[in-house]
Amino acid sequence: MEYQDAVEVLFDLHQFDPDRSLEEQGLKETENLLRELGNPHDRVPCIQIAGSNGKGSTACMLKRILRESGLDVGLYTSPHLEDVRERIQINDIPISEESVVSFIERVLDYLRDRSASGLSPTFFETLTTLALWEFDRKDVDMAVLEVGLGGRYDATSVVNPLAAAVTSVTKEHTDILGETVCEIAREKAQVAPDGGPMITAANRDALETIRDEVDTAITVGRVESTVDHDKNRETPDIRVAYKGRIGLEGAITISDDDWSLDARLALLGPHQATNAGVAVALARQVAEVSDRQICSGLRNARWPGRFEVVDQEPLVVLDSAHNPASCEQTIETLSSFEYDALRLVVGIMSDKDHQEMALALDPANYVTVCEPENPRSEDADVLAAVFDEQTDASITICSDVSEAVSKSIERANSSDCVLIVGSLFAVAEARRCFGSSSLIAPANYADQSSGSDSSDIESRPQHASDGRNA
């Protein structure tokens, strides 16, 4: 079997079956397929990360910190930018084509038999199984799993993690997870391990719900904000201060009652500071990590398509924000840059909240709407009407992403900003215009930065931490 044949088998599987319950298509079929392979997940130490926004970035930072501590680390995320192999990485290297082929050859008869009975695993269930199978074969020290949807019945929940996190909770997938933030938080809270730590940056009602579901939740929050608990203003267990942008890095301080650390982030924005706090808290719970390893990990963690600056004259930013909350975060991060006109290239999926996303992106002066090559993409005419109604921007319609990017950059002055936003699918297509590849393992920091060494990051340990008590 050739690699492309194996990939076709994967993409021929169902994406989501509305006629089957979440449990049936999240857990049961994943467990059945894993059983067929000898339950490899039972031999892989895992960390599970759920959340409405930020779980991928958090997983990336956690993986990098654990790598800096000397561990062999598997990373499972979704979706991918260019190639499905991006979703499954070991030590920053995507799974090989040979491994994908070997897996499909091993399970093909099983998939065909289950398909004949109408019970074939979905694409995500099969990818999750492939990840756990590969992590077991390569004997990783730790696997970091990004939850796909919700938590309780997500395919990744076949594992009993050593530690888990819920990064944030907003209204999303309300037709599946529940109509309210509390209902959604309840689903996500189920990733909590039996007897292990749960880290969360959720707040207000979502935090209250998580605390009702979990014995002990370690909270993370920015010090410029507070957590609303029992109508009182509560200080988070892990405090994060975002001190602004230094070049293309973010300066942060992370602290608890006995420890404090200054660090820099390759991922920009106040929201990424919060994600970094969650990643650091998880790392200190499961491994012996030094302050220097934490600093190096945060500074070297790169996550393509997440506020990715690809040019500066004009400023060109790729960001996969795909809901109102993440769009607000993108605009907040962008406010630290100086530019004249803001030109958006927007491609959004049909199941998203277009109107609220448009409102969040209201600072735009010009908007070019387009349709990524995905069957879920919203019609460009529909998006044009929404942005025309919700913003004062001048609207242009383009047939595809590459045309929209080219025209926006051509029309921009060197002092303008071109922001490509709305979905990971739009960002993936835009990245090809700049020759970027997501299959290249990240170089070390010295190769991708201004050349400064991590030794200029000040750390202030106030006691000798054993690396486990965040």
Summarize the structure.
This protein is an alpha/beta fold.
Describe this structure in words.
With 470 residues, the protein is an alpha/beta fold. The chain has two domains: 3-304 and 453-460, Mur-like, catalytic domain (UDP-N-acetylmuramoyl-L-alanine:D-glutamate ligase, 3-Layer(aba) Sandwich), CATH 3.40.1190; 308-433, Mur ligase, C-terminal domain (Protein-Tyrosine Phosphatase, Chain A). The chain has helices spanning 3-11, 22-36, 55-68, 97-116, 123-137, 174-177, 181-188, 204-213, 270-286, 291-300, 324-334, 354-360, 380-390, 401-411, 424-433, 445-448; strands spanning 46-50, 73-76, 88-90, 93-94, 142-146, 163-166, 198-200, 217-222, 227-229, 232-234, 238-246, 249-255, 260-265, 308-312, 315-318, 342-346, 366-369, 394-397, 417-421, 459-460. The strands form three sheets. It has a twelve-stranded mixed beta sheet with strand order 4-3-2-5-1-6-7-8-11-12-13-20, with helices on both faces. A hairpin with a 2-residue loop joins β14 and β15. α12 crosses α13. The chain is globular. Mean pLDDT is 88; it is low at 226-232 and 440-470. GO terms for molecular function: ATP binding; dihydrofolate synthase activity; dihydropteroate synthase activity; metal ion binding; tetrahydrofolylpolyglutamate synthase activity.
The CATH homologous superfamily name of the largest domain equals Mur-like, catalytic domain
CATH topology-level name of the largest domain:
UDP-N-acetylmuramoyl-L-alanine:D-glutamate ligase
What is the C-level CATH assignment of the largest domain? Answer: Alpha Beta
The general outline is globular
Proportion in β-strands: 15-25%
As for the number of domains, it is: 2
Summed up, the helix count is 16
Number of strands: 20
Helix content class? 25-40%
Largest sheet: 12 strands, mixed
From the alpha-carbon coordinates, what is the Rg to the nearest angstrom? 22 Å
Instruction: Give the strand line-up of the largest sheet.
Output: 4-3-2-5-1-6-7-8-11-12-13-20
Helix/strand structural class: alpha/beta
Q: How widely separated are the two ends?
A: 48 Å
